[in-house]
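Supplementary Methods. Inverse-folding protocol.

Structures were first reduced to a discrete structure-token string of length 273. This string, shown here, constituted the complete conditioning input.
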């Protein structure tokens, strides 16, 4: 079970302001907070800076690497930006977010995949748009897996994203993802499943409640990686508890360690700060 910390994202107002002011100290503090909270990778996304994305991406990567040794998840749809980023952090363990089965993106990213060999987030997305059914998502997932296997990727290096769409736009959005996870697990037991958890609640009230509930539901179906806020201690309590209850935490070691070090709030405990 793996966590990608989502906080270094220019769509967040505080991060956007830090980038504009070149406030490296703030970016570094976010990196360290997420590492301390238990993240395994740090997502770095500056897609809102469309005309200067490459420059901003390199600045962000330098800030993070200056203070934190976690591997990074480079989050960009632009092959040029990805090329510059991979040159800067050319070392094992990195993750790219993301390829898809859209021809332009796939053609742009495949040469980089061959050269740098990062682990890969692969979106169940094609040129026709976001698939509506689990069957279509699985069809795209199969095509992506087969493409990456031709590049000699091990299944364990592939993180399939079934594409969470907002529940506010379709009452079947959640169920379609749950069904897709189950089908991917049946077809490819060694492939990882990952998602941007907060997409499910976009446009609705009580977003944290929806996000947390959906995380537990997807874990039961076989999701084993999440892009989320690891500093959300209530959410992380459900994460560690679910791992233990699903038999993925030997002797509840991670749950107990996280509890003792204060990485999550016990049920009913008051929030700090």
């Amino acid at each position: 079970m793996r966590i990608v910390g989502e906080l270094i994202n220019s769509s967040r107002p505080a991060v956007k302001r830090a980038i504009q002011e070149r406030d490296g100290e703030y970016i570094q503090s976010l990196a360290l907070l997420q590492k301390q909270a238990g993240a395994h990778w740090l997502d770095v996304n500056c897609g809102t800076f469309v005309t200067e994305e490459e420059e901003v991406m390199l600045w962000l990567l330098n800030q993070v690497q200056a203070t934190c040794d976690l591997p990074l998840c480079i989050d960009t749809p632009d092959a040029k930006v990805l090329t510059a980023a991979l040159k800067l952090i050319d070392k094992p363990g990195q993750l790219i977010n993301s390829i898809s089965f859209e021809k332009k993106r796939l053609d742009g990213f495949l040469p980089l995949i061959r050269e740098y060999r990062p682990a890969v987030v692969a979106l169940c997305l094609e040129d026709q748009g976001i698939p509506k059914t689990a069957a279509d998502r699985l069809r795209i997932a199969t095509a992506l897996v087969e493409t990456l296997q031709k590049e000699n990727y091990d299944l364990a290096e592939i993180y399939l994203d079934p594409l969470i769409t907002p529940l506010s736009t379709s009452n079947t959005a959640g169920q379609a993802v749950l069904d897709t996870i189950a089908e991917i697990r049946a077809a490819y037991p060694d492939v990882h499943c990952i998602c941007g958890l907060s997409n499910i609640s976009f446009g609705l009230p009580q977003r944290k409640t929806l996000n947390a509930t959906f995380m537990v539901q997807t874990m039961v179906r076989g999701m084993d990686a999440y892009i989320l806020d690891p500093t959300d201690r209530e959410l992380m309590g459900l994460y560690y508890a679910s791992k233990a209850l699903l038999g993925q935490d030997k002797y509840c070691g991670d749950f107990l360690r996280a509890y003792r070090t204060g990485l999550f709030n016990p049920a009913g405990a008051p929030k700090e700060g």
